Amino acid sequence: MGYCYAQEVVDSGIVFRLDAQGFFHDNEYSGNRMTGYTLPGFTLQPKIVWGVNDHASLKVGVHWLHYWGAHGYPASTFDTPWPAVGDTGTTAVHILPWVQLSSTWGSLDEGFRVELGSLRTSDHGLPLPLFNRERLFATDPEAGFALRYWNPWLKAEVWCDWRSFIWYGSSTRESLTAGAHIHFSLFGHKETNDWILYIPLTLVGQHSGGQGRATWSPGLRSFNATAGIVFSHQFFGSKSGTKGSSFDIGCHVAAFGQGGHTEIPFNRGWGIYPEVAFEYKNFEINAGYWYGKDFVPLLGSWHFSNFSAASPWLTIDRNKVITVGIEYTSLYFNDLSQLTFEARLYHYLEATGNDGNVHSARNQFSIGCILNVFPSIRLR
């Protein structure tokens, strides 16, 4: 439930690194709220890491996203976990350059980091309703810049993901996603304490438009903001760095606002999400209840939207969803491979749409498997 920055140590020298990820994710959705789909495929990210010194590094490689059975890919950025646009593929493969320059000051305990170029996609501290975890493996990596600061009590991040660049006279829109996140511990932190109370704050904004386009149209703007409070208790060896157990309980409130989107029938909305999670060694079970009014999660799942993905004409007055998830994660081969199995149930409570009662199936579920392999070889 908590958000943790994965700080990496880059030594001087040259290293070849491979980040490979295979996934199979089946979403059994039906009704007029969500359309079911399956994501079978892999990502392959080979790169050369040059540690200029203990503070600066350059990473150069490629990112290959492949869906099994796909014979063509749209010539666009894959910004959602389900990029299907019919059979109008224009490229045989979907490979992007992966280049990052970074500089770090400080240590693993306290420091500041700047990243420019390709970024490691993360949930940016957003709770489940506002971030679809399929973005971590089934979309293009983020690219832009990230500024991060951390110490035992505070973790902060400002980032920008530039999704679409346009030339002068282009018929398409410039688009970007940017945000800020603060994770502040009121007391305790995971390195030294069993009892932790922290406040996560996140703001995410999206812009679509740009000057110099072939045809003028109003710019589109939208945002999500969240504020929460989470209590966490760690036990059975968690604080010593070994894989132990933890119990988390928290609540998040969220806001939505937009301007210019004529296809979205409301301009502002809100939601609330109390949740609880229990982790024991490699297993985790979590549950939450979402209540939303006129809300659209910009990076999240449509289960938690008051605007239907399957039926564009349908809006839900009060969206109420109970969700339960189970996950198993384990490392293998000297921590060079990670295997994850996950399953999640979404239970819709009775809701009313602009057509009367919503006729979606009451229970929807997803199940998936993800295998990560991340070996490295020092070249110099």
Structure description:
With 380 residues, the chain is an all-beta fold. The protein has a single domain, classed as Porin, CATH 2.40.160. It contains no helices and 19 strands. It has a 16-stranded antiparallel barrel. Strand 12 and strand 13 form a beta hairpin. The model has no long low-confidence stretch (mean pLDDT 86).
Outline of the structure:
The protein has 380 residues and is mainly β.
What secondary-structure arrangement, pairings included, does this model have?
Elements: E1 13-28, E2 37-51, E3 56-67, E4 94-106, E5 111-118, E6 143-150, E7 154-164, E8 174-187, E9 195-209, E10 220-235, E11 245-259, E12 268-280, E13 283-293, E14 318-332, E15 337-348, E16 352-353, E17 356-357, E18 363-373, E19 376-378
Antiparallel strand pairs: 1-2, 1-18, 1-19, 2-3, 3-4, 4-5, 5-6, 6-7, 7-8, 8-9, 9-10, 10-11, 11-12, 12-13, 13-14, 14-15, 15-18, 16-17
Essential attributes:
single chain, 380 residues, mainly beta, Porin, two-stranded antiparallel ribbon, 56% strand
Euclidean distance between termini CA atoms: 39 Å
Percent of residues in beta strands: over 45%
Rg measurement, Å: 21 Å
Integer tally of domains: 1
Count of separate DSSP helical elements = 0
CATH-derived architecture:
Beta Barrel
Could you name the CATH class? Mainly Beta
